[in-house]
Specification:
The complex is a heterodimer of chains A (319) and B (347). Chain A has 14 helices and two strands; from the N terminus they run αααααααββααααααα. In chain A, a hairpin with a 3-residue loop joins β1 and β2. With 347 residues, chain B is an all-alpha fold. In chain B, 76% of the residues lie in helices and 1% in strands. Chain B has a two-stranded antiparallel sheet. The chains are: A mainly alpha (319), B mainly alpha (347). Chains A and B meet through α6, α12 and α14 of A and α6, α10, α12 and α14 of B.
Chain lengths: 319, 347
């Protein structure tokens, strides 16, 4: 009985990710006591929050079944460039910027979706090509180097720290994620998304327009990455081309570590949040113990593989 | 009885069909824009020697794609061979140059094998397993050398960049690898890889070990990546831990352009070579088109290089779309034909 309880506890990926991140943080504090400060906690919170926006989109795409969005990072960079080019420090342009970023992300997401569902290009390749197209597009939009900045109001609303610990970006990310979870749990679209992820054919036969739903999932994924780009630009104030490209793989890792199955149909909302937290704490930990970039890469890779072996193995063929 | 088919219809059923058509189209386009200088030994030489590493890498990627998996650590593994071969003799005094090349090559095979174990035995999704691996390999590269440095002996890279009777030596390397492929494709070991990509469950049911077949596919890929790494080293004539990683994604795109399907079970290494050549030629063509061809007819026409890249990317995206569409259709057609033949025989 107890052993079963212990087993089910270890099988709860979300909780395990949280436990691991707390453990890592404690080890970090032991190695370097200065890490135990409100400042470092706040840094972890804000970095993880930035990741959450794009993770939510990635989660939706992965849930839709056999899907993956490799253009998420490039999309973030592109909308970040659009934001700074559009706003140029002027706060009145905030609403248009948000709308443009959302629309841009949505349209290119839909293009991804159309390519994947109707033409039948594998998601991996379609979004990969889209990411190279988007990367070139950023350079075309910004003429090589984006010059503008975001408005002070936007950046201060993201970087102000309440009670010294909770950054504004964390609250925005929290609200955003809450909306996404409620949307997925209590709307028809959310249920359909889970269904097509579990069994595309069965969903199709039961009268769901599976292709439409999947296309929309890519659209939403792109839109959320677009919002993530705007928020990231707001947090960093100035932008360079392809700043956020590394977020593609980080978002996928966070979603998968959190327990969302890559085969689709099974989203783990809380797991995604804690996966993002774990990744952030891990990279903070590695940078805090004064390792070289090289060593950090090796440790990061080994950790990722161990976590994957522990939590995201495919079922064996014979089953 | 099977009716006699013309060679063209036979070609149509091969996976290489779309790759050949795309490559012919882009070569014609290139000749139109570039003129007769396309055939000059020096320009052919540059074209082939810069693209050979990508061609070999794409061939390595193809065998993994055929098995229904994917490998996104190939580019960085190629870099590992490069960095190890060039930098190790300077770091470790007792290591002769040939040993550094040999050990670097073995490392590439080892990385391929480890990927195979992770995907086949531990059943981690191939994309993430190889992504984790690419972190480890890139870390190892940076441990050896953190910036572009070192140089390769002139005698060595002269061989690679030289030519015999106007035919570049790098072309011989590619042809040799294609020949190796033509030999190994006859073995049941490779046919099992095709089966695995076609249908994992059925392969298992026929008594083939899926784990071992996956490991085999990744190891063959590692063997080719190692050769690619040596070619890359000779092309650069120095070591660079930074630029190789971008080749991975290019090689996946090139494999698809050649007609390999990412869903597995369809394609050959020759597809990879064709696709990679197309990939290399497209950039070449757009450059000539924007710099020489269009200004001839539209005086005063000039655009920034960003647009050239953009146009090249769009052409590649369109090429991939076309290629995937055609390959999917051909595969279905071939499957149907095979089924009809079987039913005929049973009667």
């Amino acid at each position: 009985m107890i052993s079963r309880k212990v087993k089910s506890f270890f099988n709860n990926t979300a909780l395990m990710a949280l436990m691991l991140s707390i453990l890592l943080y404690i080890t970090m504090v032991i190695f370097r006591p200065t890490a135990l400060s409100l400042n470092s906690i706040a840094t972890i919170f804000s970095t993880a929050s930035m990741l959450i926006f794009v993770c939510a989109g990635q989660m939706i795409v992965i849930t839709s079944g056999d899907g993956i969005d490799l253009s998420a990072g490039a999309m973030m960079s592109t909308t970040a460039c659009i934001t700074v080019e559009l706003m140029k420090g002027n706060n009145e342009k905030l609403i248009p910027a948000i709308l443009v970023c959302m629309a841009f992300g949505f349209i290119f997401g839909i293009l991804n979706g159309l390519g994947v569902t109707y033409i039948g290009i594998p998601a991996l390749i379609m979004t990969l090509c889209m990411s190279t197209v988007l990367t070139k597009l950023q350079i075309v939009i910004s003429n090589g180097a984006p010059r503008g900045t975001v408005s002070k109001e936007l950046s201060s609303s993201l970087t102000t720290r309440f009670f010294g610990v909770i950054p504004g970006i964390f609250i925005w990310a929290f609200l955003f994620f809450l909306v996404v979870v409620l949307f997925l749990k209590y709307t028809k679209f959310g249920h359909r998304l889970n269904l097509i992820g579990t069994n595309f054919e069965a969903a199709n036969l039961s009268g769901i327009r599976a292709k439409h739903v999947r296309t929309l999932a890519y659209g939403l994924g792109g839109m959320m990455a677009g919002i993530g780009g705007l928020v990231g630009a707001g947090y960093f104030r100035q932008m360079q081309v392809s700043t956020f490209n590394s977020y593609t793989m980080q978002s996928i890792s966070a979603v998968v570590i959190g327990g969302t199955m890559l085969s689709g149909g099974k989203a783990n909302y809380l797991g995604t949040v804690f996966g993002a937290l774990l990744l952030t704490v891990l990279s903070q930990f590695l940078s805090s113990i004064n390792t070289s970039v090289a060593m950090r890469n090796v440790i990061m890779g080994v950790m990722l593989i161990i976590l994957l072996i522990a939590y995201n193995r495919k079922p064996a063929v014979r089953q | 009885m099977m009716e006699k088919t013309t060679w063209f219809e036979k070609l149509k059923r091969q996976p290489e069909y779309m790759g050949i058509i795309l490559l012919t189209a882009v070569i014609i386009l290139n000749i139109i824009t570039q003129g007769s200088s396309f055939f000059k030994t020096s320009s052919l030489q540059t074209l082939l020697s810069t693209n050979t590493p990508l061609i070999i890498l794409t061939m390595a990627q193809c065998i993994v794609l055929i098995s229904g998996n994917i490998d996104i650590s190939t580019g960085i593994t190629m870099t590992l061979v490069n960095v190890f071969a060039v930098m190790m003799p300077t770091r470790v005094s007792w290591m002769p140059v040939w040993a550094a090349y040999a050990i670097g090559y073995c490392l590439a095979v080892l990385v391929g094998f480890t990927n195979g174990v992770l995907v086949g035995y531990f059943r981690i999704p191939p994309m993430l397993a190889t992504y984790g691996m690419s972190y480890i390999v890139s870390g190892s590269c940076l441990l050896i050398s953190d910036r572009p440095q070192g140089k390769v002996a002139k005698e060595l890279w002269k061989i690679y960049k030289g030519h015999v009777y106007g035919i570049p030596n790098s072309l011989f390397l590619v042809l040799a690898l294609v020949l190796i492929w033509l030999v190994i494709r006859k073995f049941s070991a490779v046919k099992e890889i095709y089966a695995l990509g076609g249908d994992e469950k059925n392969t298992y049911l026929t008594g083939v070990s899926t784990t071992r077949t996956t490991i085999r596919a990744y190891t063959i890929s590692g063997v080719f990546v190692g050769i690619g790494g040596i070619a890359w080293t000779l092309m650069l004539a120095s070591s660079n831990p930074l630029t190789g990683d971008a080749k991975t994604l290019q090689s996946i795109a090139a494999a698809l352009l050649g007609g390999t399907l990412i869903s597995g079970g369809w394609g050959t290494m020759i597809c990879g070579a064709l696709g990679a050549l197309f990939f290399g030629l497209v950039t070449n063509t757009t450059t000539y088109m924007f710099i020489k061809f269009i200004p001839k007819f539209v005086p005063g026409f000039s655009v920034s290089t960003y647009y050239q890249d953009f146009v090249a990317q769009i052409i590649i995206l369109l090429g991939i779309t076309l290629s995937v569409l055609v390959s999917n259709r051909t595969r279905k057609l071939v499957k149907r034909v095979v089924r009809i033949h079987k039913e005929d025989e049973q009667r």
